[in-house]
Amino acid sequence: LARYQGVLWVSSEDGRIKGYDWQVRDDASFQSFLSSHGWTIAEGNENSSSSVVVIESNDERNEFFFPGFIDTHIHAPQFPNIGLFGSSGLLDWLNEYTFPVEASFGAKSDPKNQDTNPKDTPPEALRVYDEVVARTLAHGTTCASYFATIHVPATNALAALCHSHGQRAFIGRVCMDNPDQCPSYYIDQSAEEGFNATKSTIDYIQTLDPDGTLINPIITPRFAPSCSNESLEGLGKLAASYSPPLHIQTHICETLDEIALVHQLFPEAASYADVYDKAHLLTNRTILAHGVHLTKDERTLVRERGSKVAHCPSSNSALGSGLAPVRVMLDEGLTVGLGTDVSGGYSPSILEVARQAALVSRLLAYSAEYQEMTGNTTSDGSEKLTVDDALYLATRGGAAVVDMPDDIGGFDQGMIWDAQLIELGAVQNNTVSPLDAAPVRSLAGRTLPMSGPVGNVDLFGNETWQEQIQKWMWSGDDRNVKNVWVQGKLVHTRD
Ligand code: GUN
Ligand code: FE
């Protein structure tokens, strides 16, 4: 309910949007709206079909509801490494920073990875996962597609924490069995060990949430270099053996060095995408992270298979991987969403990624690769993502990437109420002139008359809705996220 701007109602049974009434504009029309449905106002969060829970947004117009963000690519165990890159590119960074932190999520007593009990996860790892789920929710991420590690107990623990916090999530146990490319301390001893361990996590997740309402397993070969052909093919078969087929996620064409390595390791494949295609890993439920340097033929193959792209611009810039030509992908009919790719990406915020997507799109015209691809040496501006484009990718785009386009990412009737209440700062009407207050402003403990109370976004009162949204995308953060709901249930409050 956005008070005085209409009513939107959500079923307490299935968390879906039942309808709207935009005629409700004041208390009297609200009361008659309620009585026309035979509803009463519930105290607290009651689950009664004949009562409603009132959620108001502030009538001073500095609050609005927005669909929850969808993070289509994030590595939960890499959170402790946020901000640590050195000046290395992807392959060195994996060896130096990433594999060591992920390896620490294993239970020391389980060298063969046969334990499935989430309680056997090291306590520090549990604390990290708990923080990841709480933190991403606080940034408005209502749905995330997680890479965990190779460890079964810790992967199950991540699933249990998503479930208990109430975050919608896809949780993938990472598969990596190529001894030439994986460190000896962090590897599946065989493709088969990888399948069995993966199956244990699938069983655990499907037992915890049999209908897959909130959490679902996702088949996760790390990327082609980490995996034997046997493993890739077996994982393709494993995904297809479920009904409906399981989701799949992996990385593709992130950096030029990685692509050269794939050509060397898979000489029989026509391309990087072809490696996955031959293993039946390119399905309409496959999420391919990055795709920065996909060739035209690869993009065509990805589109024909109905596979989706997770665009991760913060990570691509931080690791120096390149500039993904998102407008080209969209124009060619690919489905694209956004991913934080923590900790290749330095922020758990999809709002930050939306802004990085807009920034990267503005630099594309200066890239020789892009000029060659399009034949344009100057920009006509069409490659730039607008605020609306970037926020679309963060919500409806992401919903299509996780294959839930009719359920999440928007507020259409029948969709699920996965939502965030955004509050922007409003500049106070100060009676004291800022000039007169100047001496105070130069001291510690000062009051800043020109600064709003909530985050970095200041409203001066004459902004249109479009302008408020633009200000939010360019300078908002988690301080603006007041409440978050998933499946109609309140799962985070800021204060
Ligand atoms: N490619 C293979 N593994 C990874 C990873 O953990 N992060 C990123 N960004 N790329 C990868
Ligand atoms: Fe990644």
TrEMBL record:
Q: Does the keyword Ribonucleoprotein apply?
A: no
Q: Catalyses which reaction?
A: guanine + H2O + H(+) = xanthine + NH4(+)
SUPFAM superfamilies registered for this protein in UniProt: Metallo-dependent hydrolases (SSF51556)
Which biological process, per GO, is one annotated for this protein?
guanine metabolic process
Q: Which biological pathway?
A: Purine metabolism; guanine degradation; xanthine from guanine: step 1/1
> Which keywords describe this protein according to UniProt?
Hydrolase, Metal-binding, Signal, Zinc
Q: Which domain of life is it from?
A: Eukaryota
| GO CC annotation | cytosol
Q: Which cofactor does it need?
A: Zn(2+)
List the Gene Ontology MF annotations in alphabetical order: guanine deaminase activity; zinc ion binding
Query: What EC number(s) does this enzyme carry?
Result: 3.5.4.3
EC class: hydrolase
According to its UniProt entry, the function of this protein is described as: Catalyzes the hydrolytic deamination of guanine, producing xanthine and ammonia.
Return the protein name: Probable guanine deaminase
Q: Which organism is it from?
A: Penicillium atrosanguineum
